[in-house]
Write a structure and sequence with these properties.
There is one protein chain. The protein has two domains: 68 residues, no CATH class; 161 residues, no CATH class. Helices cover 34% and strands 27% of the residues. It contains six helices and ten strands, in the order ββααβαβββββααββα. The strands form three sheets. It has a five-stranded antiparallel β-sheet with strand order 4-5-6-7-8. 21% of the residues are buried.
């Protein structure tokens, strides 16, 4: 018997219309499913499941990436300086601009460079933008590498760190060449084509500052090893040559 979906009346097998209300019966529901139809139905079912799993995996990866941006960047701790150590480091830093008859060199540890960067070199660059800088860490590593970590707040509320591993290469009588090795936003590695998105938050921090300008104008070379950097200063003669038109 076939039951009418409209009035629930029972009808004989093979009937097309309901004998009670005349509604066309949905006889396709009572036909046995062929093998091809079953395979197509199962294929659509698995295809839908695979699509949903793929979308879920992509959303999960996106969420993990966004969360990684706001996690602290991997770094080793740089100790803070005491008052006497900071005063000694500042005295050496102030000697950058002093005229010298001969070449001289000054050595700074990662802790000293970090303290000086936060107190003497940072500008208010980007203070009016979405990312506000609160602190900078300079970690000198082997092979001329420096790990620069910039901590701040996004939109004034969300804590965030941007990080760049750079390599300093100094030639005889030429300013240090900076090569970007790796860039991170939080714990998330940034591909090379997007490095500028993070670097634009780091590079302006040391620009437009008189102390930073004194460093750039008086440094002949920088030699970086694990935990410290040796800064070779220009002699007075070299400084005058560099200031001439066409000078290096």
């Amino acid at each position: 018997m076939i039951k009418c979906h409209q009035c629930n009346a029972e009808n004989m097998l093979g009937a097309i219309f309901c004998r009670n209300c005349g509604t066309r019966l949905e006889i396709d529901k009572f036909r046995p499913e062929t093998v091809d139809q079953r395979r197509r139905r199962q294929g659509r079912s698995w295809g839908g499941r695979l699509y949903r799993l793929t979308v879920f995996a992509l959303l999960l990866l996106l969420a993990a990436g966004l969360a990684g941006i706001f996690l602290p960047s991997p770094k080793r701790p740089v100790p803070a300086l005491g008052a006497a150590e900071l005063a000694a480091a500042e005295a050496r830093f102030d000697s950058f601009a002093l005229p010298r008859r001969a070449e001289a060199a000054l050595t700074f540890t990662s802790a000293e460079a970090t303290a000086l960067a936060n107190k003497r070199l940072l500008t208010d660059a980007g203070a009016g933008g979405p990312f506000t800088v609160t602190a900078v860490t300079l970690d000198f590593r082997t092979g001329g590498h420096v790990l620069v970590t910039v901590a701040g707040k996004l939109l004034g509320k969300l804590p965030m760190e941007n990080q760049a591993l750079v390599r300093l290469e100094s030639g005889a009588g030429t300013p240090a060449k900076v090569t970007v090795v790796k860039v991170r936003a939080g714990k998330l590695p940034i591909p090379a084509f997007a490095h500028s998105l993070v670097l634009q938050r780091i590079e302006p921090l040391f620009a437009g500052n008189a102390a930073a300008a004194a460093v750039r104008e008086n440094v002949r070379a920088i030699e970086v090893e694990d935990g410290e950097a040796k800064v070779v200063l220009l002699s007075l003669r070299e400084r005058l040559q560099r200031q001439r038109p066409g000078g290096n």
